Amino acid sequence: MQLLKQRGILIFWAILLFDCYCIYDNNHEYRVFTKILLVPIIAFFIFLNARRNAYPTTKTLLFLALMAAWVGDILLLNNGNVFFLLGMGCFFIFHILIGIIFYRFKKINLAKCQEAFLALVVFIAAAVVLFKFIKYSIPPEMKVPIIIYMVGLAFMLMMVANQMSNSFRKINTLAFFLPAAALFIISDGILVVAKYRFDDIKFLNVTVMLSYGYALALLGGGFAKMLKG
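Below the sequence we write its predicted structure tokens.
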């Protein structure tokens, strides 16, 4: 446990890079182990570094969020639209719970929400461009779930960006949480493009996993630092 507490991020990166190699090498047997280890390692790293008997509600919400992401990772190891939809549902819950955590830290104040508003505008512009790019490739039954998922991503991004108006949390937000939110969005965008537009380009799947893993590492580092204090 001490090793995970002190070197959890390094262990995470070693497994993530091996997982990316397995994707590139079409070695799906090892991915059953490598991919499902990622979220638990981040969870152990966060909670082993967190101060005891502090932030109980935040810890509970974060644990539930990470559990949703872990189940989503397991589901997305399987092929088929049903597993993809269920995995999307799990990650939708993950993003909503992360958004709720940050909403509890700092609620939206309409007089001081420039950062959250700007983040929403940028997200909507990027989402419109992406949707136009892939709209003819997406099966009709998947369009509504994807739009709903985008709403979850937008909520999470806004709540993270809203922390920028708090001088106490601004440094951590810039260093960890805002880049993590951006990488989650980038990863999901590339995932949809890879699945429905360019499913024959193997390296896109590596990019999806690398950006998602980097986002998890940043989230883990940020929460470990925050929950220490």
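The CA atoms of residues 187 and 208 lie 5 Å apart.
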